[in-house]
Amino acid sequence: MTLGLSLRVGIDIGGTFTDFVVYHPDSRQIETFKLLSTPRDPAEAVLAGLEHITGRRPDFNGLGIVHGSTVATNALLERKGARTALVATRGFKDVLQIGRQNRPNLYDLTVDPPPVLVPKTLRFEIDERVDTHGQVLQPLDSRQLDALIAELRTCNAQAVAVCLLFSFLHPDHEQAIGERLRQEGFFVSLSSEILPEYREYERMSTTAVNAYVSPVLDRYLSHLEQAQGSDDRVQLRVMQSNGGNISLNEARQNGV
Questions:
Q1: Which residues, other chains included, contact 45 with Cβ-Cβ below 8 Å and sequence gap of 6+?
Q2: How confident is the model over 152-175, as pLDDT tens digits?
Q3: For the whole model, what pTM was predicted?
């Protein structure tokens, strides 16, 4: 391909092929091609495609890239995400397993329930309580955080989802926990940041998925970012499922 100025490149990683669409603004021509995906490291197929476009590896100069990927989806479907723990208000750590009463085959005793993303041994509770109006009924007992951190290290947790009751109305307790855990080096997903809405199961399950897949996405995006280098003229954006696109930093924190 002939390299133009300010090329716009669309990239989509699939299970079999990685697809490329290249728009040349000088000639207004569109070119397409595909390469075999590299499941072990999806970034390799992306970089190979960019080499095909630019003739140099890796070279993002003069490119505006919008990138869609199934890296996070595949990590979830194949159960290859980070080892994830859950922190909940005391008495509510099993919301993730109980789910809702409208789930299929509710009364069928012969059906095995689907595996829970965070097993019971990785679900923890902490003393605090906020009411339905966002008023604090029981302040967060920050003294429990030392013991919590020790347990998280013992169970080799790589990521932590934090989902407290009514934190979408009063996020302070989650933020205090998140700040401490991040200082200790854990990837932390807070429900008040990921899905600050009512309905405990939906908020908890979404937060758990985010904690599970985001470290995988982060490793992948870091590979691309290193190849990009420090050239601030490069525009590398990540597609969202709603059709929008976000920066790499946003994507690595919000893989869900």
A1: 13, 18, 35, 36, 37, 38
A2: 999 999 999 999 999 999 999 999
A3: 0.88
